[in-house]
Amino acid sequence: MTTKSLTRTEISLHWIVGLGMIALIAAGLYMTRVDGARWLYPLHKSFGIVIFAVILWRVVLRVRKGWPDDVSKGAKWEHGVAWVIHWVLIVGTIAMPLSGMVDSYMGGRGLTAFGLEILGANMGDNGRPVAINRTLGDIGETVHVLLGKALVAAILLHVLGAFKHHIIDRDSTLRRMVGRA
Ligand code: HEM
Ligand code: HEM
Question: For the chain, which domains are there?
Answer without folding.
Answer: 8-177 (1.20.950)
